[in-house]
Design brief:
heterodimer; A: alpha/beta; Rossmann fold; six-stranded mixed β-sheet; 20 helices; globular; B: mainly alpha; MetI-like fold; 2 domains; 13 helices; 78% helix; flat
């Protein structure tokens, strides 16, 4: 055992720079055996670089310096390459974010897990093979013998992440560094992986958890350090940082988390930029006593696809729902549950096998594309990855002119007033007109995507995972924007998301999908407070929440 | 995937059988197409084939002798009859008798094939070694080394064989006297022809292999491997090399074909016996059976090599077997 005086990991004034670019500045923390420290920050905060410099892999062109950088009292800065390699995989376990790219697609899972054993031990191949099976079992994979012989491409996301964890803990390292270990996973799978990491900690390993997700880390972390622009702004026990945040940035970060925030409450602090004299004219505002016919209905929608092996795969099975004017209907479910297929049928991009979609009371999915085209402006769509939906040769003005003229012109001059109005509506300055979308930040791109979707004055917007790729504070701004626009313009939303707290914050009604079927639907608060279906209950139990105690 | 696991071996066996049958059928089709194209292509060249049999227009053969030659080689029969009787002969493995050499084509070919195959296989191996070596060296030496390697590869890929051969002869044979300018059966005689064929190919292979090697070298799975304690050499050996080899293997079937056509030039320049040089002289002498024989043999070689490179790709890339 290590004496309590010597911490497992001691970092004092760590600095990392690439050329003149200082990515990490004066970062200090200590980690004791069996405890878990979470380093929380948004993209570009320097948290991943910090993690990599702890295993000596910050990159060829990095310059790492520190007052103290010690693992179990050993000075890491003075190590040569050979000693580093002896530490990595044996005493320091490292788990990377995306298990699809973090496991060699050409090697069998068993071989990847065997690596650390082969490099650091003298065990015979047979003993190592047995150990690999044990490891696969210990991370909760079924059929470990079969899994060991499979390629990473043959496993699901959760199984891959477990296999990657197995490869990092093969020699029971004293310190486990996990860089966003659950980001690419569905909520129920992420919860399982976090529990697995928590269990490792109970076996005595110290853990450094790198994450952007406050809710996820609150499940396992003892201490939390909040990073921004390469510095630690605030650190302390999890209860203290989450329950009584001192730094304004932490407060803003916590405010931006949609979990537990009622509908129509603001998540972001800064108000949207408003250009005087360009206030958008309110369009169809729904009168309260007007009879509320649904703007969009889906009745008995089914769609199946042919798989490469000839079998038929039912993506959506008999889905029915309706969207009321000025309201938001969320479609929630994990990946592969049929959400996007449903969205594509609603948009008229995919022909349903059975059932029909109606728009404003008249047929929609049954029309031919030629009949549908004149009515397409009524229905807009925004997607998770806006950049891939922009023509890379178009600048912002051209993109919007193209959408405003239904593809007739790219000249932004003709539609200048309306383009400025649209940009203003989504909180972008008119200076953006000449910018290329590739130079915009993630949040700005999503705002542009919303502006483009609004160009033909749609009444209904289909939003397919619109904030899934965004940092929490940017997500807050985009959610606030969508909420503002809904009230300003009387829009109705179909909101597709895997994130339950976003769905709860944004919607009036929800439908829960599982393996293509609607398992539950109803008013949001009803479904969330009294879920009827066991699957909904399981989803809710796994949903990350910021635990403050 | 789990429920059907136990039935997998049966399905895989039948899939392999399908694969072999498909390759075989495709190969037969290619050979038939080549035989047909050559048969009709040669008939379209103006001039009398009987004259070619008798030794060309300069031989002053008599009308009787020409008629006799036509009757001997079946040239007096209708074209369709000639075509089918030739196909029938080819199926039975009879490639006919060379007009110019007056000996069975099959015999001539068995003599000529080994030197050409030696040349092509050696060139392919040397090209692989050069390409891998340059790729590995350039990845370790940073962006400047990579730019240099890329430039070298483009230049060598663009260099024509005849020019490269002349330069190599001038440098290593005429000036330095290290290697003979005429390719003999000895090992030193192979150095210059092999280098001539291998360098441009190494440029091509190097371009694609270096790209995928660099991708693998900087990938998340390589970082994971390093985090498990893998050395740089280990990352190269267990991860990067395999990823680099994939596009190289995919290109090697095509590369072998280009080596066979390159051999025509190289064998002529280095006065080396082989298929290429014989094809050249057979074409000039309008030796129809010889041209047909060489073309069919090249096509067969190409079909076999393509099947092998496909097989090698399946072995190197387990994803192709899994999907």
């Amino acid at each position: 055992m290590i004496s309590p005086q010597v911490p497992l990991l001691e970092v004092k004034n760590l600095n990392v720079s690439f050329g003149h670019h200082h990515v990490v500045q004066n970062v200090s923390f200590t980690l004791t055996p069996g405890s878990c420290l979470a380093l929380v920050g948004e993209s570009g905060s320097g948290k991943s670089v910090t993690a990599r410099s702890l295993i000596g892999l910050a990159g060829k062109h990095s310059k790492v310096s520190a007052q103290t950088l010690a693992f179990k009292g050993t000075d890491l800065l003075s190590l040569n390459q050979r000693t580093w390699r002896n530490l990595r995989g044996k005493d320091l376990g490292f788990i990377l974010q995306d298990a699809l790219t973090s496991l060699d697609p050409l090697r069998k899972i068993g071989r990847e897990i065997d690596d650390a054993l082969r490099i650091h031990t003298q065990l015979s191949p047979t003993t190592r093979a047995e150990r690999v099976i044990e490891l696969l079992m210990s991370v909760g994979l079924d059929d470990p013998e079969v899994r060991a012989g499979q390629l990473s491409g043959e496993l699901s996301g959760g199984m891959r992440q477990r296999a990657l964890i197995a490869s990092a803990i093969a020699l029971e390292p004293g310190l486990i560094i996990a860089d966003e270990p659950t980001t690419a996973l569905d909520a129920t799978i992420a919860a399982q992986v976090l529990d697995l990491l928590g269990a490792l900690r109970q076996q005595g390993s110290g853990m450094l958890l790198i994450s952007h997700d406050l809710a996820a880390v609150s499940r396992v972390a003892d201490d939390i350090a909040v990073m921004h622009n390469g510095r630690i702004l605030e650190s302390g026990s999890a209860e203290q940082v989450l329950g009584n945040p001192q730094h304004p940035y932490t407060q803003r970060l916590l405010a931006a988390v949609p979990a537990g925030k009622p509908r129509h409450t603001r998540l972001s602090v800064q108000p949207l930029i408003k250009v005087p004299g360009l206030e958008p004219t309110p369009q169809v505002a729904v009168a309260p006593d007007e009879p509320r016919y649904p703007v969009l209905t889906a009745h008995n929608l089914s769609k199946s696809f042919k798989m490469p092996n000839g079998a038929s795969f039912t993506a959506v099975h008999k889905a029915s729902f309706e969207l009321l004017p000025g309201k938001t209907l969320s479609v929630i479910g994990e990946s592969g549950s049929g959400k996007t297929t449903t969205a594509r049928m609603v948009l008229g991009l995919l022909k349903p096998d059975t059932g029909a979609v109606t728009l404003f009371g008249s047929p929609w999915s049954k029309l031919s594309e030629a009949q549908r085209r004149p009515r397409r402006p009524q229905l807009g769509a925004i997607y998770q990855d806006p950049l891939s939906s922009f023509d890379p040769r178009f600048n912002v003005g051209q993109l919007l002119a193209d959408a405003l003229s239904f593809g007739a012109t790219r000249s932004s001059r003709k539609h200048l007033t309306r383009i400025k109005e649209l940009l203003n509506l989504v909180g972008l300055e008119s200076g953006f007109i000449t910018r290329n979308p590739a130079t915009l930040s993630g949040g700005q791109r999503q705002r542009l995507a919303i502006a483009r979707a609004l160009a033909p004055n749609p009444r209904v917007l289909i939003c397919d995972e619109p904030v899934s790729a965004l940092d929490v504070s940017i997500q807050a701004q985009v959610l606030d924007l969508l909420d503002d626009l809904q009230r300003q313009l009387g829009l109705s939303y179909v909101f597709i998301t895997h994130d339950l707290s976003v769905a709860r914050h944004m919607s009036d009604d929800v439908v829960v999908m599982r393996r293509g079927a609607l398992v539950e639907s109803g008013p949001t608060e009803e479904v969330f407070t009294a879920p009827a279906h066991p699957y909904t209950r399981a989803l809710l139990a796994a949903a990350p929440e910021v635990l403050r105690s | 995937m789990t429920p059907g696991t136990h039935t997998k071996p049966v399905r895989r066996l039948s899939r392999a059988a399908y694969w072999v049958l498909g390759k075989f059928g495709g190969g037969v089709f290619v050979l038939w197409a080549v035989a047909t194209a050559i048969f009709f292509g040669i008939r379209m060249i103006p001039g009398d084939p009987a004259e070619a049999i008798m030794g060309g227009p300069g031989s002053q053969a008599s009308a009787e002798a020409l008629a006799q030659a036509r009757a001997d080689y079946g040239l007096d029969q209708p074209l369709v009859v000639q075509y089918f009787s030739q196909l029938l002969r080819l199926v039975t493995g009879d490639l006919g008798t060379s007009y110019s050499l007056k000996s069975p084509v099959a015999e001539v070919l068995t003599e000529l094939v080994p030197p050409t195959i030696t040349l092509a296989v050696l060139s392919l191996i040397v090209a692989w070694i050069i390409a891998l070596f340059v790729a590995m060296a350039s990845i370790r030496s940073g962006p400047v080394g990579r730019a240099l390697a890329s430039g070298l590869e483009i230049v060598s890929a663009a260099v024509p064989h005849f020019w490269l051969a002349s330069v190599l002869i001038m440098l290593f044979s005429t000036s330095l006297g290290w290697f003979p300018p005429v390719s003999t059966q000895s090992a030193t005689g192979l150095v210059l022809p092999v280098t001539t064929l291998a360098l441009p190919l190494a440029g091509f292979l190097g371009q694609v292999m270096r790209d995928s090697m660099l991708d693998a070298h900087t990938s998340a799975f390589a970082l994971s491997a390093r985090a498990r304690g893998e050395s740089e050499g280990g990352v190269m050996l267990r991860h990067a090399l395999r990823h680099a080899a994939l596009p190289g293997i995919a290109l090697s079937g095509w590369a072998f074909g280009s080596l066979l056509s390159g051999a025509v030039v190289v064998e002529a320049i280095f006065a080396r016996p082989g298929l290429g040089r014989s094809l050249l002289s057979a074409v000039t002498a309008r030796d129809v059976p010889m041209v047909t024989g060489v073309a069919l043999l090249s096509a067969a070689a190409y079909v076999i090599i393509m099947a092998f490179s496909d097989l090698a790709e399946r072995i190197a890339d387990p994803r192709m077997r899994a999907s």
